[in-house]
UniProtKB/TrEMBL annotation:
Positions marked as site (Interaction with tRNA): 128, 341
Enzymatic reactions: S-sulfanyl-L-cysteinyl-[protein] + uridine(34) in tRNA + AH2 + ATP = 2-thiouridine(34) in tRNA + L-cysteinyl-[protein] + A + AMP + diphosphate + H(+)
Domain spans labelled tRNA-specific 2-thiouridylase MnmA-like C-terminal: 284-357
Primary gene name: mnmA
Family classification: Belongs to the MnmA/TRMU family.
Organism in which the protein naturally occurs: Bathymodiolus azoricus thioautotrophic gill symbiont
GO cellular component term of the entry, any: cytoplasm
Residues forming the catalytic site: 103, 199
Enzyme class: transferase
Protein name: tRNA-specific 2-thiouridylase MnmA
Compartment list: Cytoplasm
């Protein structure tokens, strides 16, 4: 049996606290550990949104403290071709894609994995909060034990090869413990804010960012009665369930309740908005395309649980297959089902896979 000390693991060291602690834990477990910092977005950092230089500096400080080698690589062209172009095309079609899901499949667990294997690694590791188990020669993706940080939703497109070559050291612990370990070991990343926003691109005004790449196409914002409220600059810049950024003030509607996006009517270039917890925000069924199953295609119909967005409480549902499309019927209506997003399926704590939401029905 191969000993841990003979296994070489390259950790994706991002300059954040999670990957820092992941590297430490692997060293403590006896692996031969090196690290790799990935740059995946080319942009002048004068606007303060892209923090690649600071992240690289922090990653180097952690690597130095751990006494491990830090490799660097630029995957910007891969990210543009395999993730960002798709991201833009989906928005043009009025859908709301999840770049983090595709980024994991195409960059972190493909480009990075291939690069690490060429460096002589046996496995790669990241700071994701998820678990991998092996049963009967099949690898299963399981939820992380920290319910508030579980990231299996973003990893549901991984395949058997990718899982067989990956380690998630943080799957068994929670975020508070991770920060405590980082502080105890004097990591510069111990109190560093978690990264949010678009994968590798950072936090920014989303609508303004998209308008850099997509043309504006003015249309009407209307209420459920067809009453004109104001103009929008393009359906691509909104998402179902959105509240912030609508800038619909007083004088519209019959109450002071906030407004939410309920639908994007592509044929008419109309944005439908409703006030409060309106029934138009809820649907009980959806169709999803491009299904991916981590182990094997299940037997349909299947009772399971599903999430239509990250950090949503899992919802009971029944799924079936109809000519290659997945039909999902939830036990209870779901709020703001969003075409383009992923619906991810689970059997208790095991992630079965997922698909891309195409349409929703009442």
């Amino acid at each position: 049996m191969t000993s841990l000390t003979s296994l070489k693991v390259i950790v994706g060291l991002s300059g954040g606290v999670d990957s820092s602690v992941a590297a430490l834990l692997l060293i403590e477990q006896g692996f031969e550990v090196e690290a790799l910092f990935m740059k995946n977005w080319e942009e002048d950092d004068t606007d303060g949104h892209c923090t690649a230089q600071q992240d690289l500096s922090d990653a180097q400080k952690v690597a130095n403290k751990l006494g491990i080698k830090l490799h660097t690589v630029n995957f910007s062209s891969d990210y543009w071709d395999d993730v960002f172009e798709h991201f833009l095309q989906e928005h043009k079609k009025g859908r709301t894609p999840n770049p983090d899901v595709l980024c994991n499949q195409k960059i972190k667990f493909k480009a990075f994995l291939d690069y690490a294997l060429n460096l002589g690694a046996d496995k790669i590791s990241t700071g994701h909060y998820a678990r991998i188990t092996q049963e009967n020669d099949l690898f299963q993706l399981k939820v992380g034990l920290d319910n508030n940080k579980d990231q299996s939703y973003f990893l549901h497109l991984l395949n058997q090869h990718q899982l067989s070559k990956s380690l998630f050291p943080l799957g068994e612990i929670n975020k508070d413990e991770v920060r405590k370990i980082a502080a105890e070991n004097g990591f510069v990343t111990a109190d560093k804010k978690d990264s949010t926003g678009i994968c590798f691109i950072g936090e920014r005004n989303f609508s303004e960012f998209l308008q850099t790449y997509l043309p504006t196409q003015q249309g009407d914002i209307v209420d459920e009665n067809g009453q004109f409220i104001k103009h929008h600059q393009g359906l691509a810049f909104y998402t179902i369930g959105q509240r912030k950024g609508l800038e619909i003030g007083g004088g519209f509607g019959t109450s002071g309740a906030p407004w939410f996006v309920a639908d994007k009517r592509l044929k008419n270039n109309e944005l439908l908005v409703v006030q409060g917890d309106n029934p138009l925000l809820y649907h009980q069924s959806l169709s999803a395309s491009n299904p991916h199953w981590i182990t094997a295609t299940p037997t349909f119909p299947l009772k399971c649980i599903a999430k239509i967005r990250y950090r949503q409480v899992s919802q009971d549902c029944t799924i079936s297959d109809q000519d290659g499309e997945i039909q999902v019927k939830f036990d209870q209506p779901q709020r703001a089902i969003t075409p383009g997003q992923s619906v991810v399926f689970y059997a208790q704590d095991v992630c079965l896979g997922g698909a891309i939401i195409k349409t929703r029905r009442t």
